[in-house]
Design brief:
single chain; alpha/beta; Rossmann fold; six-stranded mixed β-sheet; two-stranded antiparallel ribbon; 8 strands; about 10% strand; elongated
Length: about 300
């Protein structure tokens, strides 16, 4: 059994850490930038309606920083907007306004509110993204703070005993959720595996899962070992409301999409996948979720 992990962080902590990184890179871009001033020709009869301050043409260093910022910010804002999908419309409008501001400043578009100095620009940027930090803080205190464990198929076959996940997570109290994609893969392996011993092991896991139904409704959740809640998710993930890079025909992506839905419904909790699949681990990190490695 492995102890590898990308740390048991909450989704909010992952998003906050990346936002910190984006802010620092933006400050680096500003430190390398210059603000120019347009001088009106008082002898001209033509009135020019345009900002009096504008960004100078970006140097090669600035362009490199812009490319880095654009990539990191695009990934972050897509995840942030998905996470805050249930926000009131007024908050969504403010999120969109802040998003537009950040994009304009990364791309150095014309702006009536460009300050006089770089120092003032840093203050303005920090004040403008404060709404993102405030929103993350709000979600971090919204609801119960749980540890929610999502074992993938191989993890569940290898470690079907719920007590194992106490050790893996380092917590006595947790919720283990069995995702529809994992349950489907178990049924498929039960029928199609060419290895009799492995097939027997899969059938044993399925029998164990079915046995939990005798203790109550698994959709609502049943408690075992006094402090472990077990739940099953019946609904498939909605790919019209998930990250754009996820593929509905890929099982790993279906697991990630389900995990994101659970995270959105439990914003202050730490949703953590248990998997030894390196590709699924990579996708988990890209989606700003946590994972625990299991050998």
């Amino acid at each position: 059994m492995g102890d590898g992990t990308n740390s048991m962080k909450t989704f909010v902590e992952h998003l906050t850490t990346q936002l910190d990184s984006i802010k620092l890179t933006m400050f680096e871009l500003l430190d390398n930038s210059r603000i120019n001033f347009r001088r009106d020709d008082h002898y001209s009869n033509i009135a020019v309606i345009a900002p009096t301050r504008y960004w100078d043409n970006p140097t090669e260093t600035e362009q490199t920083l812009q490319i880095k910022l654009k990539k990191n910010y695009d990934q972050w804002i897509e995840t942030f907007k998905l996470f805050t999908k249930n926000s009131p419309e007024s908050s969504k409008r403010k999120i969109n306004e802040t998003d537009e501001f950040i994009i304009n400043w990364i791309e150095k578009k014309s702006d009536w509110e460009i300050p006089n100095t770089i120092a003032e620009a840093k203050v303005k940027f920090e004040n403008s993204i404060k709404f993102f930090y405030d929103t993350l803080n709000l979600y971090s205190s919204n609801g119960d703070k749980e540890i929610i464990i999502l074992p993938d198929t191989n993890a569940l076959i290898q470690e079907p005993d719920p007590k194992t996940y106490k050790t893996l997570s380092g917590s006595d109290k947790l919720t283990i959720v069995f995702l529809p994609t994992v349950l489907s893969e178990l049924d498929e392996l039960k029928l199609k595996s060419s290895n009799p011993d492995f097939q027997k092991k899969v059938k044993s896991v399925i029998t164990r899962l079915k046995g939990y139904r005798q203790q109550g409704n698994l959709i609502d959740g049943v408690t075992v070992e006094k402090t472990i809640k077990l739940k099953m998710v019946a609904s498939e993930p909605n790919f019209d409301r998930t990250l754009s890079w996820l593929d509905r025909d890929n099982n790993d992506d279906r697991i990630i999409a389900s995990a994101l839905e659970i995270q959105r419904d439990n914003p202050s909790s730490a949703v953590c996948l248990v998997t030894s699949d390196i590709n699924l681990q990579n996708k988990t990190e890209m989606a700003r979720l946590s994972y625990i490695d299991i050998d």
